[in-house]
Model the fold of this input.
Amino acid sequence: VNVGQAYLMTTDEQMYHEALDVACCVRASNLVQELGMVSNVFSDKTGTLTRNEMNLVKFVINGKLYDVQPAEEKAVDEGKYNAASGAQAATSYMQRFGQDKQAFYDFFRCLATCHTVVREKSGTYRAESPDELALVEGAGRYRCQLFERGSKEMEVSIFGERVTYEVLAVNPFNADRKRM
Done:
């Protein structure tokens, strides 16, 4: 039922915005059920809500504030990856973080693995929410990225080193809990 409703919404001509040439985009089919429960609509002047865009710009590790570094060239090309160069890149990358390197590793490993984002064949990401996408893209600026995700495991690159993790469980966002 959710998939059918999502399809009807994306193909509905009345939900098309001519000036922007944008059709309705359904990112999470489970949210369709909650549309009738909306009682307040909020907006802001920055475009975070109106354009549905979010970006990771700062983070804190061990009490220190860090700016997200500018985007580099594509971190690791799937077709050109080899384990030896990946491990070497991870080691040299970790040297930049000094005493906090384990905290950095743990933080970016969480960003690379704790989400429901899926990588499309084109290399772009598909996410249920813009905040998940912002965190995954922010991690990508530090050579921590998702390569492949299945229901049982996911393959990621952490500072250039390719690692496969077993997916033990997925806790979807719940409005009552207000968390994933």
About this structure: The longest strand covers residues 144-149. Residues 73-83 have pLDDT under 50 and may be disordered. DSSP finds four helices and seven strands in the chain.
